[in-house]
Predict the 3D structure of the following.
Amino acid sequence: MNKIKKKIYRNPPAFTLMAWASFAFFVALILIGLYTLKEPLMGKGYYLMGPVSLISSSFTVPKVVRDNQEDEDNYNLLLQKATIEDDSNT
């Protein structure tokens, strides 16, 4: 018999859709604003660097924080198991 549990997500699909839709909407606004800007291409490229860097760091920083927290939780769990095993051996 198959005993695989159903995958459970932390966020409902509607919230996930809203997050990605708002992300796409605001990226589109930035691109439309740059397209209609009356500046040479060099100026538009300079103005594009800020949002691209901000978007990149907006994904990277939460991932790093989450990974560090998961590593800390795993370390604490291993330390707790080791402590319990040491106590049972003595």
About this structure: The CA atoms of residues 66 and 72 lie 10 Å apart.
